[in-house]
Each structure stands twice: as structure tokens, then as C-alpha cells.
Amino acid sequence: MNFRTQIPLNTYTPLSVHKIDYESEILLFGSCFTENIGNKLDYFKFHKSVNPFGILFHPKAIENLITNAVNEKEYKENDMIFHNECWHCFEAHSELSDSSKDELLSILNENINSTYKQLINSSHIIITLGTSWVYRFVETDTIVANCHKIPQKKFLKELLSAEEIIESLDSIVTLVKSINPNCEFIFTVSPVRHLKDGFTENALSKAHLLAAIHQVIEPRKHIHYFPSYEIMMDDLRDYRFYKEDMIHPNETAVNYIWEQFKSVWIDKNTSDLMAEIDTIQKGLAHRPFNKSSKQHQQFLEKLNLKMERLRKEKNIHF
């Protein structure tokens, strides 16, 4: 008897696709689940950049960032707002906010410039969409990426239709392809449920994202889908795979989804190098009983030799 429902992953990626290896340049945008996958890529020392403007939950925010990057926008003072003794930008997550106006301006312009360069050089762009719900700042009639805890009465809450999301995703792909025609796109939907919107509202939101993405994906044009959401909902489908808030996937779930992603998208020729890096990472995390012991010093010396060899041979830095 089989007590689980496995997702047939081999249906999602053509055999001829350019998979991720240690020559790949990976750029990730999107919801907090993007950070989970980014952390895994970082652990195994792949070349990656994650959310240069912080976590972005909806497609309009990602489209806006990519539009600004491709157009090489220069941020100015009127792109920022002062609230709660801090400067914010509606196009970026609060983690970029700063008490210094000049510092935030510098960060925004530095990050938009680096995003442009990364878009040109990326071999793979991974976009994780979290929600179809957006907030429109009434004062300027613009959809924001983050409300920065500004009173909700200053915003209108709207649900993007599937058609609006399709337009946004088409725009993202067209913009990137205009400067980097050969990159692979991987779209996925975050398994994190946005229950603050309401249970039915969250289901509707995810449905709009799924309906839109499946109108855009076209493997022959290097546009793919990875079923993170389906793996969480239909394969794992148990609260033991959630954190205490019963909303976010726990470490076991993230590891499982990563293994599924790896089986589809990571080149199998990297497995030996990944295993070696994993051994080194576990060695670096090891906490000895006696740091000054001869045995531990020998262990550290061997570890350093391994890291130095990988730095010289593979350009991998720890």
C-alpha cells in the first residue's frame, strides 16, 4: 500500500534543458520561500544572488523591479518616504530601510545597478510568487511592494486577476529576454499560505497565480514550472511538516522540496562536488569538546587544505 501521493517531477523539465551546475549564474526573486532555496544554493556554494530588493510577494513588485533594472533607473529622493523615524522605498522590502536618507538612496542605486548586471549574466532566473493580493497607495495610485507598516487606511487592497498576472509575467520574460535571450526561467508558487488574507481568499489568490503561470510556461522558450506548492499541499500534506505557526514549511519540508528541486534542476555531474562541500560545511559547523586539542587542530588543518584545494581548482570560497 502507498500512503502518499508523489508528484511526477520528470514531466516538468525537458531532457535538453540547461541544468544548474557550478558554472551557472542564478538569480532568485520572490516570496520568503525564495530565501529557503537561496540558502540551499548558498550552502552548496553555487553562484547565486537572492532578492536584491528584499522579499517581494507578488508579480507586480517583481515586474516593477525588473523594469527599473533593465531601464537602469536612478533612484532619487522622491522615490522614498519617511515613516516611524526611518526612510523607506515602496519598491523594496523593509530590510533595506534605513534611518539615513542618503544611505538608503545609495543602497537602492547600488542594488538596481547590480540587478541589471545580474539579469544580463544569469543563466537561470527563479521566480517564486507568493500572492495575488496587492496594496495600492492611494496618494500616488501605485501598487507597492511593501507597506512598511504605514496605516492601512492609506492603501486599497486589490486582487490581481489571472489576466493581469499573465500580462505581468509576459512583461518580465520579455524584458529579461531583451538583454539576455538564453536564460532559463523557473516559475514556482510559494507553499506558504497567506492566511491573514483569509482561507478562501488565500485559495483564490494561489489559484490566480497557478492559472496565470500555466498560460506563460513554454519549455521550448526556456520558461518552466516547478511544483513547490503542489509538493507541499499534495505530497507532504501533513501539519508535522509545518513550523509552529502552522503556515510556513519547517526544515524537514524545505529539505524535502530542495531534494525534489535538485533531482530535476541540478546537474547530476555536480553530485560529487556537492557531497564534498557538504562534508566541509558539516566540518565547519562542528563544535569540539576541546578546541585546543591536538586531534581538533589536525581536523582543522585537513579542513583548511580541502577548502584551499576547492578555492584553487573550482574557485569555491567558504
From TrEMBL:
Annotated ranges, domain GSCFA: 26-261
Matching Pfam families: GSCFA
InterPro entries reported in the protein's UniProt record: GSCFA, SGNH_hydro_sf
UniProt GO MF annotations: hydrolase activity, acting on ester bonds
Full protein name: GSCFA domain-containing protein
